[in-house]
Design a protein that fits this description.
The protein is of the alpha/beta class. The protein has helices at residues 28-35, 38-41, 53-62, 73-80, 124-135, 153-158, 171-177, 201-206, 208-227, 229-239, 244-257, 266-278, 289-292, 296-304, and strands at 7-10, 46-48, 67-68, 85-89, 92-94, 98-101, 115-118, 144-147, 164-167, 181-185, 191-194, 197-200. The longest helix has 20 residues, at 208-227.
Length: 310
Amino acid sequence: MCLYPGTRIYPGTPENQNSNANLSFTALPLVAAREWKLFDQQGLDIEVILMRSSAAAAALASGDLDYQSGIGTASVSATLSGLDARALWASTSRIVYWLMASPQFKSVRDLRQKKIGVTGLGGTSHVALTAALEKSGLGAKDYVAVSVPSAQLVQALESKFVDAASLNPPFMFFAQRRGLAKLLDIGALVEMPSGGLTALYKTIKTRPDEAKRVVRALQTAKSIMLKSRERTLDLITRVLKMDNETAADTYKLVESNFNDTGIPSPEGMANIVKAIKAEGRFTDRNVSFEEVADPRFAIEVAKELGYKVP
């Protein structure tokens, strides 16, 4: 970890629901770029700072942070509330959630009039679940969504407090080991960026070369992770503190989710805005892609690294 006064990045927490700051699955490219000296190779002196999600926007606005590692409802809400920031790059274009239930449920249609656990009503996981279930033939009125803290969702399933739940890593793997089954890959049905990089427009305007180099380091980290399984497994077990089995399962998600260009898409950002509006905020506002994202650096880097860019 580099020391102040280097560029400072806050790595975010999953779904902005955790009370304590920690590193998540979608922060893996950031961790890899730091641990494997990819920021150094780009001439960057990076300090990664862990803090609570609620403090990130204020720290970014005050200049205590240069970048926030993450794109989601919290960062976009801050932008819509007046923070002049943009999403620059995404760890993945797919939200990593599975809908899981006991084996007695064979399909999502079996969940009619049942209770489904989510991490925060109106939040990203809830909105993504709603969209995925609608595409699978189950409307929002066909089931009851129940808010349960992410760390308690597996227990809620086992105790039958809920009949199904939307789980992210590593909780989906814990559920599988306890005999629970995957009914639906939510991320496969709903385009929505997860993880990533957000910066003030002032930073983008005055230090564009730096912003591009940060994006390049992160995208390069993703590419190396896909080519270096053992090296990435070591990173996962050592930094995210996972056991070997969970790390191996997590790497499978790396292979399926971290193989994209990192370019924030209009559809994905629109789904984040939809999640925010589902909470009753900014409902009368027509939000354009340009208000919340600036993908130019991600596009340039993807092209330079040989990705196919539309």
